[in-house]
Amino acid sequence: MSTLTFQGAVGEVTGSRYLLEVDGDGGSHKLLLECGLHQGGPDADHDNAKPFGALAGQLEAVVLSHGHLDHAGLLPKLVREGYSGPIHCTRDTAELLEIMLEDAAFVMAKDIEWENKWRKRADKPLIEPLYELEDVARTLSLCVPHPYGQPVPLPGDVTLVFRDAGHILGSAIVELTVPSGGRQRHLVFSGDLGNPSSVLMKDPETLHEADLVLMESTYGDRDHRPLEETLEEFAQVLDEAQAAGGNVLIPAFAVGRTQEILYHLSVLYHEGRLKQQLVFLDSPMAIRVTELYNRKRKSLNRDDLKVLNIAAQGDPSQYLPILRLTRTVEESMAINRIHGGAIVIAGAGMCNGGRILHHFRYNLAKPSTRVVIVGFQAAGTLGRSLVDGAERVKVFGEELPVKAKVHTIGGFSAHAGQSQLVGWVSAFRDRPLVYLVHGEPGAQQALQQALAEVDVDAAIPAYGERIEL
Fold first, then answer.
1. What is the pTM of this model?
2. Cα(259)–Cα(304) distance, rounded to whole angstroms?
3. How does pLDDT run across 399-454, given as a tens digit for each residue?
4. CA 346 to chain CA centroid, nearest Å
5. Domain ranges of the chain
6. Pick among 3.30.450.40, 3.40.50.10890, 3.30.479.10, 3.40.50.300: CATH of 227-412
């Protein structure tokens, strides 16, 4: 019998990894589905540092749903430890990975350099990064891109097909046909399912056949607010910030969320509703990704692009004329000399690093500042502390009072909400067994109960649990 082992994104949102051991084609074959970075929480660094061991040399293929680091961020570490096989992904994901992984290696090198300075002074052993730029280069050379809908043969007589997940550029639902016990078993991994209300992305594809489904449950405990209400709330927060004379800080994920926020700011600008005179995109990675999205307009939702084209008379450079792209550290630092009236979009999305921390340092203690949280904040991250109402937080080792007003606007999420998840999985005929992954325990339990009400049997796996297909 072929087996699946849950090696990550179990009881948490990040660290996606699943080991498929296939009994077929005259022998046993090992394939890896996802190779994600753990983000947030006290054990993230420890979990990320765990060696792959013999597995790195035993794997024959890796399959990737999309380019977010919690799904792909440990690929260069796997390659560094000996993996040299193909990495199967969609065409757009392959291009995103170059940006994502190079940035991750660069940031890691800077963090390690800072860490080792005090370690050396304290006469403590120095540490090494999980991977370096040369490991990223080798990883990218192993990527094998595929279009949506094309059957791809994998070792062990396995067949792979990618379907559009509607989450970010290149995101995919993964379909695997796997031999097991003399039969062909149909395994479907949702990846991260998109929110149909989100702009720019197409709706997630609906599938109908599966024996086993691995489904994300990030927002398994709630639905998102309607987009119209979300946009009104967003516009109101921007108006209040302008009236108070403060800056607006938006920690945003470089891929997906940033482009969506820029879209909505562009629409508000052309409607005459955006009172701020400057919008800064303060993230080199987000700038590169935004430029990639612009080049990949054929992959995006035509109706949404039509709105922008009408507003800007078809000239992409005029979507948001007040936008300033700050690539250098000096340009980023100069933003903090602006004491009000600016919107600053900066990474990291969960506030666990990146340039947003520098802006917090200068703005969090000001009552006129507005912090707008537009994405999921994992347990243990600074962003989660702000969402939970922390009155003081640590930034670069310095304790800061939180006087700024923090607004959580969940309707911008690029993830499906509970009703959408239930609807997606209910489309499968013959009610496959469902395993809930990529969710915190409360969200998983709530989704499990909601699925039971529509006669869908959903299990919540444990870390290391191994199941037969």
1. 0.91
2. 12
3. 999 999 999 997 888 899 999 999 999 999 988 999 999 999 999 999 999 999 99
4. 15
5. 3-222+414-468, 227-412
6. 3.40.50.10890
